[in-house]
Structure formats: structure tokens, C-alpha cells
Amino acid sequence: MKKFAVVLAAASVLAFSGMAFAAEIVMNGSTTVLPIAQSAAEKYMAANPEAKISVSGGGSGNGIKAIIDGTTDIANASRFIKTDEVKAAVEKGVYPVPFAVAMDALLPIVHPENPVSDLSIEQLQGIYTGKIANWKEVGGEDKPIAVVGRDTSSGTYETWNEFILKKERVTPKALIVASSGAMLTTVAQNKNAIGYDGIGYVNKTVKALKVGGKTGSAETAIDGTYPLSRSLYMFTKGWPTGEVMKFLNYLLSDDGQKIVAETGFVPLRILK
């Protein structure tokens, strides 16, 4: 009887330990990458009941900061890590490792009733710096342009700054929104607005513009002919191991890349 009690107690300890050390992954960062991360996490947990994954947005910059501070396991980012962020990480003994998980086409968007369908990079720069303030200057109606931008913690803002603003300041008249979803909603509700969003967010509530005659699509993002193409990343604190590695392997597999396509973004390779 005593032996049975000891075995039972040991079994209880092992069961409790399994519960206490259940795998957990924390993801934070880009709202552009958020739909991919959420969908992948849900399907991964369904296939791996012992795993627990929490996902939150807040911007690429905040995600990378969380990796540096050690408060997240994976930083989702719609841009590559900056030199000063690498320096800050190394000073804390953290060595972020990048994993490209998807491609994206960054699309200028307007209200569906806006007659403009194509803008050059120069025209977009003029609009976002305030040098072009009326739609009639770019072939539209005689109406003021309502510029909508992203906050500086956003990786999408960083990409737009690099490709369009080219380090010039955005007009102080711009309305700044905090997320990809807020950008879509704001532009959809204002007939004079212009904004920008990742291809996975853009739907029929807005109209995507061509850029210099090029349409943003999965094909043009992959072959590089669309001028506002970019990679989407997940950063880990050092080389990943355990559950984090298993999750990334899943996301980079054909099944994981199909999730990327299902969320409207562009998989890293052509899938059968």
C-alpha cells in the first residue's frame, strides 16, 4: 500500500510538472503581420494542444523593443531591424535572429468613389509632404486631399518613409492612425482620403491604386516588379529552440505558407 502511495504521488508530481511547464510562446509587434500570426497560432495550437501562444499588436518598433527587453519570444515586424536596435540588443546580450515569413505589397488606398486609379511615386511623395493638396492636381476632382498616415512605431510607416517620403517630413495636416485596421476604416469613411496598407488588409471598402502603372499583387510582389514590395518578418531572441522553433518551422512549411495566402498576404514561394 505504501509503495502504491509513493507511485501515485510521483505520478501526481509529474502531471503537475507537465502542466506547469506547458509550452508557451508570446508574440508581439506589427499589426500588418498580426493576421498571419493569429491564424497560424490558432491552427498550431489546434494541432498541438499542449502549446499556448499569445499574440498582440502594437507596431513593429514595439515588438522589436520587446525582444530587446526580453518580454516577448517573437517580434513580428513589417520591416527589418534597424542598426540602433541591433546595438541596443547586443548591449543587453540579446542577438535578434530574423525569419522572413511572407511577402507583402504596400498599396496606396483611396475611397472607392475616387476617380484616380494610378499615382507615381513622385505624386505620392508630393501628396504626403503637402506639396500636392488637391485631387485635381493628380487628375481627380477639385477636392482637398485628406492624408492619412501611420505612427512612427509602425513598420509600415518605415517602409512608406523609405519608398515614398524618402526621409522628407509628412505633412503636419496628416491624420495619424495607430494600426492597419484603423487605416482601412478611416480611408473607407472619407471620400477625400488617401492612405496605405498591406495587401492582406485591403478589401472592397477601399480602392487600391496602381503605382507608376504597376498593380500590387502576389505575382508582382514575388517578382519584384511592384515598387512597394517588402518582406514580413518574425524576430527571435537568439537562435530559436523548443516550441518557438517548432512554430516557425510550421509557419515556413507549405501548410504554414498556405495560411499566409489565406490571410491575403503573399507566401514566400509558389505553392502547389
Keywords:
D-Maltodextrin-Binding Protein, domain 2; 10 helices; 272 residues; 39% helix; 9-stranded mixed sheet; alpha/beta; disordered N terminus
Q: Explain this structure to me?
A:
- There is one protein chain.
- With 272 residues, the protein is of the alpha/beta class.
- The chain has two domains: 2-103 and 232-262, Periplasmic binding protein-like II (D-Maltodextrin-Binding Protein, domain 2), CATH 3.40.190; 104-223, 3-Layer(aba) Sandwich (D-Maltodextrin-Binding Protein, domain 2).
- The chain is built from ten helices and eleven strands.
- The strands form two sheets. Strands 1, 2, 3, 4, 6, 7, 8, 9 and 11 form a nine-stranded mixed beta sheet that branches. Strands 5-10 form a two-stranded parallel ribbon.
- α2 (34-47) links the parallel β1 and β2.
- The chain starts with a helix and ends in a 10-residue tail after the last helix.
- Mean pLDDT is 91; it is low at 1-21.
Per-chain topology:
Blueprint: H1 2-20, E1 24-29, H2 34-47, E2 52-56, H3 60-69, E3 74-77, H4 83-91, E4 96-110, E5 118-119, H5 121-129, E6 146-150, H6 155-165, E7 175-177, H7 180-188, E8 193-198, E9 207-208, E10 210-211, H8 218-223, E11 229-237, H9 242-252, H10 254-262
Parallel strand pairs: 1-2, 1-3, 5-10, 6-7, 6-8
Antiparallel strand pairs: 3-11, 4-8, 4-9, 4-11
Helix pairs in contact: 3-4, 9-10
